Amino acid sequence: PKQDVGDEIGLAFDFLADPIGGGPGGERILTGHDNGRITLNVAEADSAERERRRVEMGENYRTLLGHFRHELGHYYWDRLIRDDPQKLAGFRALFGDERADYEQALKTYYADGAPRDWQQHHISAYATSHPWEDWAETWAHHMHITDTLEMVHALNFPLGRLETVEANELPRADTGGKLQPAPSEPASRPEPFERILDRWLVLSEASNSINRCMGLPDLYPFVISDVAAQK
């Protein structure tokens, strides 16, 4: 956590409400990140208001958790990438040059929208606006994927029984129809992301299909292209 206003390494969260009637110039509280301080508008905790904003912004997914993870991506870019020349070069090779004018890039995005072929290169339309936003969106989706799969494992959910996954590829157990906690054994070595992504594609497709059976929107309404997966 941040120790004081001069702390450039710590992390802090502000939950703020719009001023009554707006600020002096009609300002509103915007979700964002600034030097380790993440601000969220408390209005987004209201489901109806958040849905209104989602539709207004033309988004297919908008949650408070998504905001947190996206803004954390900006924070960790500063911590992990910004001051490391080698990592910065790798970032630019994958995401583009972050030195492009940020404010102008956002103005262009909101005026013209994303390119027609954005799904071939990005995880979301907003990711096309600027390399920083591409990183933050990709970071958020990495957290969506790994957190959900960790929960599946913790519940010992028999994901390996889905036909599209080979037998014995995933942790599984005969639970007699009841979910039991999985053994809390630490991984002996990091798992290749390709295997993680394979599991996610199976789980997300199944989850989307189940939601449709209940007349609900897709749980994960995104397509992960080869380029996005590489990022």
Descriptive labels:
three-stranded mixed beta sheet, 6% strand, 7 helices, mainly alpha, 231 residues
- Largest sheet, spatial ordering of strands: 1-3-2
Overall mean confidence score, pLDDT: 86
Q: How many discrete structural domains?
A: 2
Number of helices: 7
> What value does the Rg take, in angstroms?
20 Å
How many strands, what sense, and barrel or not for the largest sheet?
3 strands, mixed
Structural class: mainly alpha
- Please estimate the helix content: 40-55%
Can you put this structure into words, describing what you see?
This protein is mainly alpha-helical and 231 residues long. It folds into two domains: 1-45, no CATH class; 65-161 and 190-230, no CATH class. 43% of the residues lie in helices and 6% in strands. It has helices spanning 47-57, 64-80, 85-95, 102-112, 131-154, 193-213, 226-230, and strands at residues 12-16, 32-34, 37-41. The protein has a three-stranded mixed β-sheet, covered by helices on one side. α2 (64-80) packs across α5. Residues 162-168 and 170-177 have low confidence and may be disordered.
Quick overview:
This protein is mainly alpha-helical. The protein has helices at 47-57, 64-80, 85-95, 102-112, 131-154, 193-213, 226-230; strands at residues 12-16, 32-34, 37-41.
Please specify the SSE layout and strand pairing:
Blueprint: E1 12-16, E2 32-34, E3 37-41, H1 47-57, H2 64-80, H3 85-95, H4 102-112, H5 131-154, H6 193-213, H7 226-230
Parallel strand pairs: 1-3
Antiparallel strand pairs: 2-3
Helix pairs in contact: 2-5
